[in-house]
Write a structure and sequence with these properties.
5-stranded parallel sheet; Rossmann fold; 266 residues; alpha/beta
Length: 266
């Protein structure tokens, strides 16, 4: 039986039918629409959006967040990064630190890494076995169903980068002053484990995808990565169709009519 997600057979580059110029031109209109849809989502205050960004080190999660959400009103938008759990977090169930960051009504929440770390890194490093991972897959599916039942839409991006591009980005971290802060000795060690990570990612995408499918984002070219992420977000918000609330005043009231007549722009 073939795998649903065979990541090594999926291209990490943009498809041939779209050019960089076309994507960047489309992004101008998409960014304007995104701004309007986010304003409506925040004003409506009835729905929320969770954006999950997962991927190997060097896949460009930070850059995507910086570029895609540039110019968007920070009101109603939040980002949280999930790094190594603290002792307090380790003392609770594996979703404890995640659930409290679920978006409230009207908000867009971005997870830079996420609850999926608890079925990825911990498996490669040998902290949990396959049986435990299978149980966690089920719990994660129930968790996401809970969020959706409470009015949260979920988009899950897997940031797909090639081995060559990943190594080139690590080299940038070693040589470019603005990126040196990102480099850690573990980067190259993690790259040696690339195939192990690919395997556990494939299983996570397979087992935690039926209800809320993943979007595999080719990340070797930043312009296409940003375009596809933005396009997906805008299409999701269109489907959510948030609306501005109706006015809470009676514009037929004589006092209100007089006020509008005096101060309203002609």
């Amino acid at each position: 039986m073939s795998k649903k997600y065979d990541l090594n057979s999926i291209s990490t580059k943009a498809p041939s039918h779209i050019s960089k110029e076309e994507a960047q031109n489309a992004m101008k209109d998409l960014t304007k629409e995104f701004d309007e849809l986010q304003n409506r989502l925040y004003a409506e205050g009835k729905q929320s959006l969770l954006i999950v960004m997962q991927g190997l080190d060097g896949s460009g999660k930070d850059g995507a967040i910086k570029s895609v959400f540039k110019g968007i009103n920070p009101q109603g938008l939040s980002v949280v990064s999930f790094k190594k759990p603290t002792p307090e977090e380790m003392g609770h169930d594996f979703l404890w630190r995640v659930h409290k960051h679920a978006p409230m009504d009207g908000y867009i929440q971005i997870f830079n890494r996420s609850h999926y770390e608890e079925v990825l890194v911990v498996r490669v490093d040998g902290y949990i076995d396959d049986a435990t991972a299978q149980k966690r897959f089920e719990i994660i599916n129930h968790f996401e169903q809970l969020l959706v039942s409470n009015g949260t839409q979920i988009i899950k991006f897997y940031m797909h980068v090639s081995s060559k591009e990943q190594l080139e980005r690590f080299a940038e971290r070693m040589t470019v002053p603005q990126k040196m802060w990102k480099y850690g000795p573990e980067d190259l060690e993690k790259h040696k484990q690339r195939e192990q990570y690919i395997k556990v990612y494939e299983e996570a995408l397979e087992h935690c995808g039926p209800d809320f499918p993943w979007v595999v984002v080719p990340c070797d070219q930043n312009w296409y990565k940003e375009y596809l992420i933005l396009k997906t977000i805008v299409e999701t918000l269109r489907d959510m169709n948030p609306q501005y609330p109706k006015a809470k005043i009676d514009i037929t009231d004589p006092t209100v009519k007089a006020f509008i007549s005096k101060y309203g722009k002609k």
